[in-house]
Design brief:
Length: 249
Amino acid sequence: MRLENKVAIVTGGAQGLGEAYSIGMAREGASVVIADVDELSGHKVEGQIRNSGGKALFVKTDVSRKADTEAMVQKAIKEFDRLDIIVNNAGILFTAPVEDTTGEMWDKMFAVNVKGLFFCCQAAAKVMKKQKSGKIINISSIAAIGAQAGLCAYSSCKGAILPITRVFALELCKWNVQVNALLPGTTDTGMAKLAMADPNWTRQVTQSIPMGRLGMTDELLGAVLYFASDDSKYCTGQTLIVDGGYSMV
Ligand SMILES: NC(=O)c1ccc[n+]([C@@H]2O[C@H](COP(=O)([O-])OP(=O)(O)OC[C@H]3O[C@@H](n4cnc5c(N)ncnc54)[C@H](O)[C@@H]3O)[C@@H](O)[C@H]2O)c1
């Protein structure tokens, strides 16, 4: 098992990609803290991991609140003694053409997707520096590097994650903490369904993926395990795109 005796936090771990990362890392031996605003789904994932013999803890967390992110890390340490990995995966999406994108949409998305991720990096970095080891994995998106109609505010958030990743990586190098970003392509989750409610958009997106289909949640897990494990110990400040070839054409 690649993550034996490791302790991991997955923000937004209650459903979709975060659920797949939580279950997948637990299967590899990690004790997993599922940090999410959604209590019901979060407890379900916690139960599923425990029922399969793994270790898990749900911690209700709104990543946009700094105090919540600090409490999340403290609860992880209280329960499991240390923190080796954090997957900053919590995210929200509202779609609108540029002229209809409101200040409120912009602020809400930035509060969770950018400021929340930054608070989580800060809270994790504090303990990882003391331990002199750690892995921070920031979930960006292919939206950070290519234009998609309706996603101006969301893409701006996901773009902001790239310099955050590099600067944390640079500042934390001397404490043996690696910080990398994963850019998933469109993956079959609740979030993608929201964006793809318009059938024209769905057709357009699917046609633009060389592999001809959306990603499945477990197809992103391998990249997370690479960044979470010793396999990536000489890799920091980098981005990995997993998108069925979307960004190569
Ligand atoms: N699905 C895709 O096509 C896709 C593509 C690229 C990147 N991503 C990114 O991957 C991540 C997961 O996406 P998903 O498709 O699984 O989304 P999802 O909507 O299925 O799940 C998101 C999770 O985040 C939680 N969450 C929302 N706001 C939160 C907050 N303030 N604090 C804590 N938790 C919060 C939700 O409760 C939910 O459990 C997101 O960051 C998303 O931007 C998704």
